[in-house]
Design brief:
202 residues; alpha+beta; paralog of FGE (formylglycine-generating enzyme); four-stranded mixed beta sheet; two-stranded antiparallel sheet; 4 helices; 17% helix
Length: 202
Amino acid sequence: MNYDGTLAGWMLKPGSWRAPGFVQTPEHPVVAVSQREAEQFCEWLTQHERTSGRIGAADRYRLPTDAEWSVAAGLKADAHDPANAYPWHGDHPPAPNAGNYASGELHDEPLFAKLPIIADRRDAHRYTAPVGSYTANPFGLHDMGGNVVEWLQTEREGPASIRGGGWLDAAPALLDSGHRFTLARSARSFVIGFRSVLERNP
């Protein structure tokens, strides 16, 4: 698929995490990786950390499960909690320091001039933000909402699950921590990244 000049085409065009089309540094979350590539990174990191002696021989890095992601976001693992629907645990819209979401700064970019945004709000980052730019949640985790949407571990065949609102999202439903959707495992987008978890085993 080639970029067709539309926003939807730009979001899902094939590309490289090395050149996503906007400035990224080692402090920014990676984008434009498929779910399989995210899993391969976890496999590489596991071997690297085992070899260096930083983790045990049975320990491993992997993508979080849906239940783990829910708990990390402050939700019950087995049910959606409307009282804590948003990562900032307040009403919509989020305050500017609550996370990196689609706000007025996006309309400074011609490509995004007609994109829905959170009205009367601006944050400091038009695209992704360096990790740690916004307040951590009670578990010390950053960007459980905002910045990038995240791939999850999927045990079954077929599409892979994704959680969390990203820097291009403004609608309340998309920012709700309980929102889930799926994409093909091979999909790459400049709004999707991942986080890894360290599984300790005896």
